[in-house]
């Protein structure tokens, strides 16, 4: 049976190939087979969902990540915020950035600076 690294590589490959349905199926299979996704797995799924403009689903994946005890890091948050910014989903981007700050991810100062600069 594949381990978390194998699943993550396969999911990332599907995301890069723009085959989100296959990535989601692999993600679901992973969980069914008792392999818990890690931060890299979740980031790949969030990136893929954002690329497909499925921002609500990407946000749900972030919540799922937290509910399974996998703590989102700066990379996960910045992937989501940057994609939201590019799609001009500013209220949701601000909400995510406030969440980052509340969690003590102070590296977001650079991200905030980019966000504010590009918004003008």
TrEMBL record:
Keywords: Repeat
Similarity section: Belongs to the PPR family. P subfamily.
Protein name as annotated: Pentatricopeptide repeat-containing protein
Organism: Thalictrum thalictroides
InterPro entries associated with the record: PPR_rpt (IPR002885), TPR-like_helical_dom_sf (IPR011990)
PPR repeat feature ranges: 3-37, 38-72, 73-107
């Amino acid at each position: 049976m594949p381990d978390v690294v194998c699943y993550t590589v396969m999911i990332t490959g599907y995301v890069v190939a723009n085959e989100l349905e296959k990535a989601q199926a692999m993600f679901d299979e992973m969980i069914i087979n008792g392999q818990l996704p890690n931060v890299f797995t979740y980031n790949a799924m969030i990136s893929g969902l954002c690329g497909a403009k499925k921002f609500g689903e990407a946000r749900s994946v972030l919540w799922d990540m937290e509910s399974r005890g996998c703590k989102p890091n700066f990379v996960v948050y910045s992937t989501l915020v940057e994609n939201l910014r590019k799609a001009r989903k500013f209220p949701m981007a601000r909400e995510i950035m406030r969440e980052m700050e509340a969690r003590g991810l102070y590296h977001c100062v650079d991200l905030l600076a980019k966000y504010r600069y590009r918004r003008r």
